[in-house]
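Below is a filled-in request sheet from our internal design queue. Each sheet records the structural input a requester submitted and the sequence that came back. We keep these sheets so that new team members can see what a complete request looks like end to end.

REQUESTER: design group, bay 2
PRIORITY: normal
MODE: inverse folding
CHAIN LENGTH: 227
BACKBONE (tokenized):
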């Protein structure tokens, strides 16, 4: 996870510069451009496998937990750090209330269970091995999920700071099926807008999110020129 931090720090710096060098009203109209060193693979947190894909997801898909440069873990979509019981075999996660996916679907316990089960069981999932110790995901109430583990697994919380901890909209998954990666829907400051052949990935600001300064974001693979 350390490798991802410099890239995300550059993005944070870009956002700060956008705010400093333009007035509030003007900044709202800007497009933030993020240069990538290659095109990402599938834009589906369940199936994705590349490092550059993680950079794209950091803009459109929030996670249950976040991890900082000092490897300190804090809640993001979760409301608090998990409660561990039963000798490490039961992990209870409280979720933030009132959160919605970018398509308006509530991000509640049912949606998180749906996402974790999809990560665990979907054919071709690259998250299945990361969540292999999880035996079952239970809905306790609208804002609480309980993970039952086969055995204690201390890296679980760290796994939930990456793609294994990214909930996806059940509404969008059911609508798009195998084509979910063509129009992914998560919770994030920007909502996926489009991705075309030989064109950059575009996103538009989710107006319910307050942290996105730019109205649009463009993530573009830059090819190095040989002399």
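RETURNED SEQUENCE:
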């Amino acid at each position: 996870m350390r490798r991802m931090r410099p890239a995300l720090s550059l993005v944070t710096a870009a956002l700060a510069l956008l705010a400093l060098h333009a007035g509030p009203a003007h900044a709202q109209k800007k497009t933030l451009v993020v240069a990538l060193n290659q095109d990402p693979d599938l834009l589906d947190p369940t199936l994705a496998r590349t490092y550059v894909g993680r950079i794209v997801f950091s803009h459109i898909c929030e996670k249950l937990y976040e991890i900082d440069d000092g490897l300190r873990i804090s809640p993001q979509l979760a409301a608090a750090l998990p409660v561990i019981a039963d000798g490490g075999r039961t992990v209870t996660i409280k979720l933030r209330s009132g959160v919605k996916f970018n398509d308006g679907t509530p991000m509640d316990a049912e949606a998180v269970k749906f996402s974790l089960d999809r990560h665990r069981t979907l054919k071709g999932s690259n998250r299945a091995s990361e969540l292999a110790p999880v035996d079952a995901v239970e809905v306790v109430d609208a804002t609480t999920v309980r993970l039952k583990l086969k055995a204690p697994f201390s890296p679980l919380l760290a796994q939930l700071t990456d793609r294994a901890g990214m909930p996806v909209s059940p509404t969008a998954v059911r609508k798009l099926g195998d084509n979910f990666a063509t129009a992914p829907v998560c919770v994030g400051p920007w909502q996926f807008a489009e991705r075309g052949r030989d064109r950059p990935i575009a996103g538009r600001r989710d107006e319910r999110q307050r942290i996105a300064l730019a109205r649009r974001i463009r993530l573009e693979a830059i090819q190095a020129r040989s002399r």
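SHEET NOTES:
- Residues 4-20 form the longest helix (17 residues).
- Strands lie at 31-36, 65-67, 73-75, 83-85, 90-94, 134-141, 144-149, 190-194, 201-205, 216-221.
FILED BY: M.R.
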